Amino acid sequence: MREVVDRVWAMLSAGANAGATRSPFTMLQAATVGLDGGPKVRTIVLRGVSPEAGALTFHTDVRSEKVMELRKDPRISLLGCDLDAGIQIRLEGIARMVDSLDERMALWKTSRPHSLIVYRAQLVPGTPIASPEEAHRAPGGMSDSMAGFENFCLVTVDVQTIDYLDLSPNGHARAKLSRQDGAWHGGWVAP
Ligand SMILES: Cc1cc2nc3c(=O)[nH]c(=O)nc-3n(C[C@H](O)[C@H](O)[C@H](O)COP(=O)(O)O)c2cc1C
């Protein structure tokens, strides 16, 4: 199974380091347990991957609903799909909001200004507005490079299970793996 584990993390690493060329695993769908108990899913950008630690990271707004949901129930499920290759990766894990100021600051400083705009918005995500333009009003303190930093949230997911599915013409293989004591265990299952 080492080969499958390595393949999965290589695809996720490519997603996190996409740069100019987009990787199919740059955008993942992240599912949480909603405050109403129902499933909630949304797209996130995969920002970092640590195959050794079995962990990945994404950025979000601390004011968003998903953060409230994860504070209540940290279980998270992530899904990525490479349509051309016929590969699906499903992950389950435990999310934690990183408190370290240094870690958050380092990421903030190396982020492209464009990707920080959302954190500078004065309105809490999901606030009802009369028209989309209302959310675009120039937020105060834009000239301050730290404006919005207090809303910038780094989420780390400790991955506990991997469900790998290869439905390519030569594939038709599925593997289920789980992480115990820092090592991956598992095997092939019927697709
Ligand atoms: C292409 C794309 C990428 C996105 N990336 C992120 C992201 O990295 N982090 C994030 O919090 N929201 C991201 N979003 C927005 C979320 O999908 C979602 O709409 C938003 O975070 C609010 O979700 P929530 O109310 O469940 O917290 C992205 C949306 C799109 C369309």
UniProtKB/TrEMBL annotation:
One of its GO terms (biological process) is pyridoxine biosynthetic process. It holds the Pfam family Pyridox_oxase_2. Its cofactor is FMN. This is Pyridoxamine 5'-phosphate oxidase. Residues 12-98 form the Pyridoxamine 5'-phosphate oxidase Alr4036 family FMN-binding domain. It comes from the Bacteria. InterPro entries: Pyridox_Oxase (IPR000659), Pyridox_Oxase_Alr4036_FMN-bd (IPR024624), Split_barrel_FMN-bd (IPR012349). Keywords: Flavoprotein, FMN, Oxidoreductase. GO terms for molecular function: FMN binding; pyridoxamine phosphate oxidase activity.
